[in-house]
Amino acid sequence: MVGISGRALSKIASSFMVITSDNQKTNLGLSLKFEAKALKVVDYSQKEGRHWEFSDKAVELFREYKEKFPDVFRMLDGTGDAMAKAAEVLAGDDPDGRVKEIKSWLKSKGVRDFEPVSLFCDQLTKDTVTEIEALADSFTKSKSSSAIKKAIVKGIPRQAVLKPAHAVYRLQNQHFALGDRVTMVQDSGGVPLSIKGVVIGLNAKTMDVVWDVPFMSGSTLGDRCSQYRGSTVEFNTCLNLSNPQFVTSTNPKAPPPVRNEVPFKPRFGPHPAVRPAPGQAAAAGFKPAPHSNQPVHIMTNPNRGGRGGYANGRGGPPPAAAQTRPETTDQDSSAPSPQPNGGHGPSVPGRGFPRGGRGGFVPGFQRGRGGFVPGFDRGRGAPRGGFRGRGRGSFAAPTPS
């Protein structure tokens, strides 16, 4: 439709920065989409899934821009994301003057007045809101507070009456759409009770309403409506008049209406998925780890051996110095040999060297971890009343008095 590539369209629709001769950066783009900030321009662009969509007004703006300044579009397909200089983009003797000319043309088209909004909201355009205000003014012009008369209503069941304090509990899961006529049913807050308005914007948990009459706490909703006419309210503070969902019969014996159990969660724009579509890479660049049949060891110590290993000496053969057993006397040879884990019993052949004792009681063997060996003095000092050494590894004989 425009006759340019997708890369060129993406550049000119967002921000296209050029540097002038005085090292000043100038944006020559249309600023219709903001990918990193997740913003769009109402009535010009929107994002559906992974792709951007542009309206007829945006396409017409692309065509006018290309016809007016074709040399700008010739540089959009260039490789690289570095900022180009004005002399490289615009032909002629005065590229800085051409930059000023493009800026003035974009301003005349209202590009700099575009209001970016979140992708996850939906709003009416400013021109539409102006027409709604004019229509509401024509309705309220002939009304006056003195013409309101009091009336007594009888025969209304209690379930058909909505107390303002109960609105936050009873008006759950109410659905709204752009252009719906609503009325305020909550008596607390900045909006007066029973005032009517029109929904002009839907957010994730709130909605923007332009009211029929101005009030003190009203706002312009970001310069989208007249002063003191707009406000952002929650869904359960208003009653939908265009799509009634809480209609109750005046017959006291009538069954209560069926409540809507489907929650109203308006979300617009792209929905980030946990898993990408088949054949497509994830938007965040995440790549799952390849599957492997080999087990992955986490937090393992390579210097620690298992049963029968040789890394830390707990289960392996004794050192070379320990393997050469010294000659023993008949009394030493009669002592039983150490068993695995400090226990008793003969060694099991074919299972490597026996493991060192772990605190078990081995009579006559002095290599256990805390085992009791009879007749062996560890040198912790003399009995009470005598001389006691300060060290833990020596023993001093008491001196005769």
TrEMBL record:
It comes from the Eukaryota. Residues 174-240 form the 5'-3' exoribonuclease 1 SH3-like domain. Residues 305-315, 353-373 have a biased composition (Gly residues). Residues 272-290 have a biased composition (Low complexity). Residues 1-154 form the Exoribonuclease Xrn1 D2/D3 domain. Pfam families: SH3_12 (PF18129), XRN1_D2_D3 (PF18334). InterPro entries: SH3_12, XRN1_D2_D3, XRN1_SH3_sf. Residues 247-401 are annotated as: Disordered. This is Uncharacterized protein. It comes from Crucibulum laeve.
